[in-house]
Design a protein that fits this description.
The protein has 138 residues and is of the alpha/beta class. 35% of the residues lie in helices and 18% in strands. The protein has a single domain, classed as Rossmann fold, CATH 3.40.50. Strands 2-1-3-4-5-6 form a 6-stranded mixed β-sheet, sandwiched between helices. β5 and β6 form a beta hairpin. This is VapC45 PIN like domain-containing protein.
């Protein structure tokens, strides 16, 4: 039987609707608040934490592909990131979107080329380029 990856859900997707999709499908899910509490957590901290545990990351902040420190970490990681392409969806719409594309996401988990970053929209998955980190110190 195929082992399901653990899933980390960034605060941008909330802690109920999107995690429910994956929990109902049998995944172990950890939300940002469950792991780090209510304190502010830099993206680089939770990204490193998820990478160290070989987790799939769900978020809706595509800026992690462009922010120098975050793209540096991302480019040197083994992360698998799924990011909503629209940041304006209500939680119920996010839940529906992840639920309707769960099969396509599951086929993507084992992609050996890592890191990878895909956008999720109503029309499906799109591989997004991870921008080169340039000369950024970690």
């Amino acid at each position: 039987m195929r082992r399901l990856p653990d899933v980390f859900v960034d605060i941008s997707l909330g802690g109920i609707a999107v995690p429910r999709v994956f929990r109902e499908a049998g995944y172990k899910v950890v939300t940002l608040h469950e792991q780090f509490g209510q304190r502010p957590v830099p993206d680089t901290e939770w990204m490193q934490w998820a990478d160290d545990r070989d987790m799939v990351v769900l978020c809706k902040d595509q800026r992690i592909r462009r922010n120098p420190a975050e793209k540096y970490l991302l480019s040197r990681s083994q992360l698998r990131v799924v990011c909503l392409t629209s940041g304006q969806l209500r939680s119920s719409e996010q839940e529906t979107l992840f639920r309707s594309h769960l099969g396509a996401l599951e086929r993507r988990w084992d992609d050996p080329e890592r890191p990878w970053f895909v956008g999720l929209s109503p029309s499906g998955l799109t591989r997004l380029r991870i921008e080169s980190p340039g000369n950024v110190d970690p």
